[in-house]
Every structure is written in structure tokens, then in C-alpha cells.
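[Q] Does anyone have a clean C-alpha cell version of this?
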Amino acid sequence: MQARLITLEGIDGVGKTTHIAHLVGYLSAQDLPVTTYREPGATPLGEELRQILKHGPPRSPLAELLLFAAARAELVSSRVKPDLTAGTWVILDRFTESTLAYQGALGAIPEKVLRAVCKAATAGLVPDLTLWLDLEPQQAFSRRYPLAGVLDAQNGGAQAATELDAIEQRSLGYFTRVRERYLAMHEAEPERVLRIDASGSVEETAAKIRKAVTKKLKSWNKRD
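[A] Here you go.
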């Protein structure tokens, strides 16, 4: 079967890292060669840019967009495309949809520019399947920081004893807009961008992912 690119998406706290590990195990059990990378990161340049994006100085929305794009361009050219060409399946922790959701939710960059930058960074590469783990922002935050904070109703910000990175410090309203943009992408491409309800237990969510991927494997097998 032809190697495929699968991406996992969602706001922070939905369990992407956990479910990527489960998915790697599931695909490996089907005798499929598989590797996984995170965004931004997975290359020397990407890891440097990850630290800047998470803990560096404030930057404009356009600068943030281009930093993410630079990390992605390096990852696609040096890791993802060579792996796919060699027949290895690739699972990514975030990809283009993250940019469209997170940078788009800032409301400072025209949609046409967002999409043009994404297309340039990926050289036109589109995931074969995107699994959007959907969860209310309040629940996602409480999962990520179960002992570290409450939602501040006065300013909509997340207060946490644990240090948050530059993006996690944004308001609840911002993450609500991020979720709305993911929903719009799912509605535009429901067969490629699948919504996975992540409100249940890890086991329940993992079962939903396995079911969705199994269905896709059967479809791809017939097509190949």
C-alpha cells in the first residue's frame, strides 16, 4: 500500500501526543512502516524555532506565521517527503491546519495570505487524513493542567501555577476561535478532516481513532 501522511490536530490538551503513540502502535501492528514528527520541531532548525515560538520575545502575527512556515518547510523537505517517497508512513503532531486555525484565529492576516504561505511551506503537500481531536477549551486546559489553575472569568485568561508558553497564555476567547476554525475546516472537507470527539476517556478516544483509520485503510487499499 502507498505510504500516507496522517496528521493529528486540536487545541493543546486534547491528547495528541498520547494518541499518536497509540496510532503508531496500531499501524505498526498492520505491518506498515511508520514514523512520527512534531511541529514545530523534528529538525535542528525546527527545534530552534520551537523554542523561539514558545518562549521567545513577543512578535507580530506575520512574523509568527513565517517562523512556523520556516520550521515546516525544513521538516517537509528534509524528513516528510523523503520518508513518504521511501514508503514510510508519516504521522505529524500538527501541520497546515494548525496554522490556519491558530494564526487565523488572531484575525490579523488575510486568509489568502495564510493559505499561500502554507502552500509554499509544504510545497503543496496535503495530508491524506487529518484527525481533529475536538474538545471544549475549558476541558482541554483542565486536562493539561489539572492542579494548576482556573479560568479567570474577568479577563478570559488561563491562570496557572505551571508556566505557560507564549501561545498557551492567550485568552479563552482565542482558543474558542481556534476551535471554530477547526470546525470550519472539517465542514469544508469532512472526508479528509475527520472530527474525533475527545471528551471521553483515553480508551474511548483511541477506539474512535482506530475505527476511523481502519475505514480509511480499507479505502486506500482498494484504491491502490
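[Q] Thanks! Anything notable?
[A] The mean pLDDT is 92.
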